[in-house]
Amino acid sequence: MSNYTKFQQKVIKRYYDNRDTIALQRAQELVTELYLTAGKKREKHWDSLALHLGKLGVKPDVIAHLRAQDKPELVATLIKKLMEK
Question: Where are the beta strands (DSSP E) in the chain?
Answer without folding.
Answer: none
